[in-house]
Design brief:
98 residues; alpha+beta; two-stranded antiparallel sheet; 58% helix
């Protein structure tokens, strides 16, 4: 039996809305690769939403309240995802020893 030594914060929540974690012995698995792919997709989506948001805000036409509300919702979703990815990756960085 392998020793459990790694706990990874996953880029999705559990059924109860609480953070989901993957507990492993440190070896790569299908679930860890799936999490990697989802994180990459979330960051790509964030870049695209940011690009589109800038285009709306820099447009010669003033955005409507509805457009601004929609942009704010999407940016909030993407920021939430990006912060979760950053937290997950930060937890996996080994501690620095001087």
């Amino acid at each position: 039996m392998s020793q459990i030594s790694h706990v990874r914060l996953l880029p999705w929540c559990g059924v109860d809305g609480q953070p989901a974690h993957l507990v492993t012995d440190g070896t790569e698995s299908r679930l860890s690769r799936l999490a990697d792919n989802i994180e990459a997709t979330q960051l790509d989506t964030g870049r695209e939403v940011l690009r589109l948001s800038r285009a709306i805000l820099q447009s010669l036409e003033r955005p409507t309240a509805g457009e601004l509300f929609y942009v704010t919702q999407r940016l909030t979703e993407c920021l939430t995802d990006a912060l979760r990815v950053a937290e997950s990756r930060g937890l996996r960085v080994p501690a620095y020893e001087a």
